[in-house]
Amino acid sequence: MSNEKKFIVSHAPFWHDGSSISERSYHTMLAAMPAVLFGLIQYGIPALAVISLSISTAIIWELIINKITKLPNTIGDGNAALMGLVFGMMMPATLPWWIVATGTFIAVVIGKYIFGGIGSNAFHPVVVSITILLISWNSYFDFDNALVNYDFGFPAVFPLGALKAFGTGSIHGFSLSGLLMGQQVGAIGSTFGLGLIIGGIYLILRGFIRWEISISFLAGMFLAAMIFNMANPEKFAGPFFHILTGYSLIGAFFLATEDSSSPVNCIPMLIYGAGAGILTVLIRNIGAYVDGVLYAILIMNLVNPLLDKIRPKAIGKVA
Amino acid sequence: MIKRPFIRLSKPRIQYALLGVKVMEPQEIPLPGIVTLLLDSPLIRKDIPFKVGDAVKTGQKLSIAGEGGPYVISSVTGTISAISPFYGDYGRVCTAISIKTGRKEELDKDFAAKSQGATLDTAAEFLGFTPGAPCFAAFRDPDKAIHTIVVFGGNTDLMIATNQYAIKSRIEDIGHGISILKQITGIEKIVIAVPRDLVPGFGHVGAELKGVDLSYPSAHPKMIMERELKLTVPAGKNCEDMGVVFMSAEAVASIGKAFSTGEIPHKKILTLVKKDGTQQLISARIGTPMGDVFSACGVSLNEKDRLIIGGPLTGSSIYSEDYPVGIDTDAVVVQDKADISLVSDYPCINCGECVRICPAKIPVNMLVRYLEAGHYEQAADEYDLYSCIDCGLCSFVCVSKIPVFQYIRLAKHELGRLNAAEATNE
Question: Whose CA, among A160, A188, A308, B171, lies 20 to 30 Å from A293?
Fold first, then answer.
């Protein structure tokens, strides 16, 4: 027996289509690049500092938690880096370092690992983290104050903030093409609409996110905003304005589509996406907060397990 | 190996390959020095009516538990050189009978004498160990009212050309086999299912023709039942419970050939898939060690390669070149160690790829969570474990590389054992 060749024995199937978690993470990061690069050009070195710090601290928190829990090192799968990048994209460029480090700690440790690690988080970790930060240090997230020292060459007011405070009369200065091209004040990676859309289309075409969620999110938002706008054009902005401002596009393509906190069956995906879109507009228009994307996604994350019970009947299922 | 396409909006379609118009002839493997026949019964020495050193003829029946028990048919003339226990996958226990081949071939006359008037008993008594593995048990089971026989001229798994070859080149044997089957079982409804593009090539062989879609896993018996016969097999039942028996084209050809010549066929056609993905048809005596097949076809094996009996999605890997060609071995796939993708212990990330590709519409993402935790009964009750048709696609597309298919098979096996144990206790 000793001179016999040893073969690898394992269970079927013996083929694999070659997909992997790291591939998904790195390609999602690639898709975010247009928006991130635009943010870096717009806001300069402070934005680079925030993004670099958020990615690196997210990886460090994951490494630390790997060591503490004595689990295998998982930073290579790119999930922590992706979370860091998405977190950074949603921060104002002038955020102090300690909020960034705290935020990634909340995202990686509380948002992800407390729930059981990758695949087990009930809520999008980054959304959890940012909502906690928003409640804790609200003043740092006032984009008008945070970016007061910049000179952009376009109205330096946060569009949603202006809309909330003064109605549609205050937003005539924003053209839709300007918003699409990123001529607005906001977070580092969430203002360049065109870049986010290009990234989203890339992710959809490559099959890394489910188009049902993104499209129904935008459709739900569009419909709800349109109804509000028709009811009272003085007070409520039109659908395109809502889609191109705040966290809408980053929410549609990078937040709502997170694997573990979103449904997988077709009808639940549509309900989930549309629900998040409609809730966003409801919160923005009649709620207390300026931007509703984060809370809308958290609420839909919460109902996701229930939604995913709507599923096709398996073949041969009795009764 | 099929990889994920660059652009992937919808779920991937994996196609069965068709044989070309010009049918390639199988390569004949020289008579091996030793053959090993696997008898589906545990080894109980006192029951065995033959012993090491006995002479056997080609076509001779070797049976363990007397008349009507499991048996093998010797594929060579020679002397029995070893009788040993053999353990297969999922608790399969066999007796391996090795026969050293002699110089001169002699044919056993037992079947020839009985093959004049074909009866179900004769078929069950002699043809259960012929290429293609025809099974006659369902016809003799009073609990099962069989009304349809489906002769399938394709293979369930990918890359396998064995049954396509049988239906293309042995249509006369199949036609004869079908008339024998009608005669001995009294069943009038016989359906020939072939890959859709092959349908125009068939004349009248005394059976209804159905074309089967070319995308995997349309050729799975339960999918053929669902899509072509419009009969849904309830979860936990099999096709025979629904009155349908599936036979491979090769098995029917074996039956036809046996009754027309009076000789029990002893050569198995199998598809060899080499490391570079090329296919080759092989004709070998049943029981030929795989090593003989590889050396005859110039396949060189290295340490840590993988040998797979059956197809790439549902086959089973073997650990030794001594593993014999069996009556149901339709293919052997050789995989280079560089092409082997290993499973991982990552958790499910809920991406939903498996849910979307599952042909049985099982919520695989939920199922696998229960299976990982060992809650098999709950998995069967709430998450459709028994609707699974064993196609292996969920593992194929799994981003986390979870051995989903292995979990499913293990769960079914364990539940089967539990149920069997409960039935004995009652």
Answer: A308
Nearest residue in chain B measured CA to CA from A264: B352
Inter-chain touch B403–A11, beta carbons under 8 Å = yes
Pairing type for strands B78-87 and B189-195 reads: unpaired
- Establish whether this prediction's ipTM goes over 0.85: yes
DSSP B161-209: -HHHHHHHH-HHHHHHHHHHHHHHH---EEEEEEEGGGGGG----SSEE
pLDDT band at A283 (very low <50, low <70, confident <90, very high): very high
All residues of chain B having their beta carbon less than 8 Å from the beta carbon of residue A7 are 301, 303-307, 317-320
Smallest Cβ–Cβ distance between A7 and the set B307, B349, B363 belongs to B307
- Yes or no, beta carbons of A316 and B234 under 8 Å apart: yes
C-alpha B160: how far from chain center: 11
CB contact under 8 A, B340 and A14: yes
Q: Taking Cα atoms as reference points, which of A137, A130, A63, A142 lies closest to residue A90?
A: A130
A200-255, pLDDT tens digit by residue?
Answer: 999 999 999 999 999 999 999 999 999 999 999 988 999 999 999 999 999 999 99
Q: Where are the domains of chain B?
A: 30-112, 113-261, 267-339, 353-425
Residue B293 corresponds to which tokens in the numbers above? 């097949």
- B350 → closest Cβ in A4, A11, A259: A259
The whole model's pTM is what? 0.92
CATH node for B113-261? 3.40.50
CATH architecture of the domain B267-339 equals: Roll (3.10)
Residues of A in contact with B398 (CB under 8 A): 16, 19
Residues of chain A neighbouring B7 (CB-CB closer than 8 A): 205-207
What is the CA A181 to chain-centroid distance, rounded?
A: 19
Could you tell me the residue ranges of all domains in chain A? Answer: 21-140, 155-307
* Contact yes or no for B195/B202 (Cβ under 8 A): no
